[in-house]
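Appendix B. Raw example, untouched.
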Amino acid sequence: MPNNLRLLLGLLLATPLGLLAALASGSAALAPTELWQVLTGAGEPLQQSLIFDLRLPRALAALICGGLLALAGALIQVLLRNPLGDPYVLGISGGASVGALAALLLNSPLLPLTPTAALGAFVSLLLVFGLTGARGWSIQRLLLTGVVIAAGWGALISLVLSLSPSERLPGMLFWLMGDLSRSQDLLGPGLILLGGLLIGLLLAPQLNLLLQGELQAATLGVEVRRLRIILFLLSSVLTASAVTLAGSIGFIGLVAPHLFRLIGGSDHRLLLPGALLIGGLLLLFADTLARSLIAPQQLPLGALTALIGVPLFLYLLNRR
């Protein structure tokens, strides 16, 4: 069996093991025998509530959110042909953050958090896509438009925070730094992740050709402009789903694809599912640490992923 396939199989086996470790860890740690009793329905009611109502949804949300960010990062790095491509570079996350902060600020049942954040992401998507295509599609125009839109959203976020009442400010700041505790409805993000992976795998041969250069890809029959638009829309939807699920969580989308490339190569037929699994495991590991290091107090997830991602990225940079 080739090394890259062994790596992918190892990641598949590591995912349920990481999930079990996350379920057993926290402010009230469970021994393996206790965890087994809970999973088989023989545990105490309090332990069952702890696992099935609190830890399991949060762990699954970490796997899904990490997978969304990693898959979006891999696609954006191909779209921009830039190894520093990141899910947040196009400004979609800023729109989602503004929508979520507006929902937290107004605290109205008419403005639930997830739909409002999704609406903000959709507005940002329309802005970037419309302004990029107004005078002809190009990578440079897309990148510059995304950076400017992201800066505008950042200024609006600062304004909203400065005008927010003090009693709501901690919750808003914690969400901005990454928060999986509000993640309950996982069906939608899970389906988006599965659909994004399937579309990415269908496009994988074209992505491999695009890595060789736009002229060569076009010569071999790839409709480069159409492929760029698909990549932009797909990566934007993946990013928006991740941000509405858990807030802004950095470095996962940047580091996970590079980690797989370092060991398993750049063939997108394996890179996309491999990066997805690595991203999910990284975020699951970070969330477990966030819940366990100084339990019962929880650390902001985004800050912890940055602390993990910075040395990882520097290591990758030195290796390559």
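End of appendix B.
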